[in-house]
Amino acid sequence: MNLVIFGPPGAGKGTQSNFIVEKFKLHQLSTGDLLRKEVKSKSDLGIEITSIINSGKLVSDEIVSKLIENYLSNKKYKNKLIFDGYPRNLQQANNLDYLLKKNSQKISIVLNLSVSLETVKKRISERKIIEKRKDDDEVVAIKRYETYEKNIKPVIDFYKKSNLLKVVNGEGSITEINSEISALIEGI
Ligand code: B4P
Known about the structure:
Blueprint: E1 3-6, H1 13-24, E2 27-30, H2 31-41, H3 44-55, H4 61-72, E3 81-84, H5 90-102, E4 109-114, H6 117-131, H7 138-161, E5 165-169, H8 174-186
Parallel strand pairs: 1-3, 1-4, 2-3, 4-5
BIS(adenosine)-5'-tetraphosphate is lined by residues 7, 9-15, 30-32, 35, 53, 56, 58-59, 64, 85-86, 88, 92, 123, 126-127, 135, 144, 173-174, 177.
């Protein structure tokens, strides 16, 4: 089973993906984490994307697509992937569809983790104290939320058409959301 989880930055995608990895023995593919790893390694790509991430904008579709394809073409992860934070816009949704077909795979469920801007601001300010991420600044967090909202609507419509979309209330406690997601996956 492959699964997509999306929601604004700070919605709890990473938190819930960790739970799904443990319970359903899948592999998490977080585009945010992969991009942050590149930044940390100070590779040419990392240097190129540092200012993009720190300003709250999206990294180019081409760069993210290359990162995704490395996983989809790897037999070790076949039908075992959680796409965390990908797709983020319609072009990425079409690209994922293309790459899945090319690698004889499909998506079984799409989880839309829905949270308000107020909740995002609160969680990101708390995380900043612990993790000290440069993009966890309130002004950047608002920009990230707006970028997300602007791009995600066509993605939601895309997955509604294929009947894969499930909206999850991301405002609850971590364990409440764990239970809701478990029930949805077990119901496939
Ligand atoms: P992301 O990686 O998506 O952002 P994130 O802030 O890590 O979000 P996540 O939802 O995983 O939050 P977490 O579980 O940590 O994006 C970062 C940047 O990368 C983007 O702005 C963009 O530039 C770039 N990017 C990523 N994907 C891209 C793509 N496909 N294309 C182009 N660019 C892309 O949860 C947040 C905090 O809340 C944690 O501290 C957690 O402990 C807490 N929390 C979680 N759930 C909670 C709950 N239910 N109650 C209370 N606290 C909770």
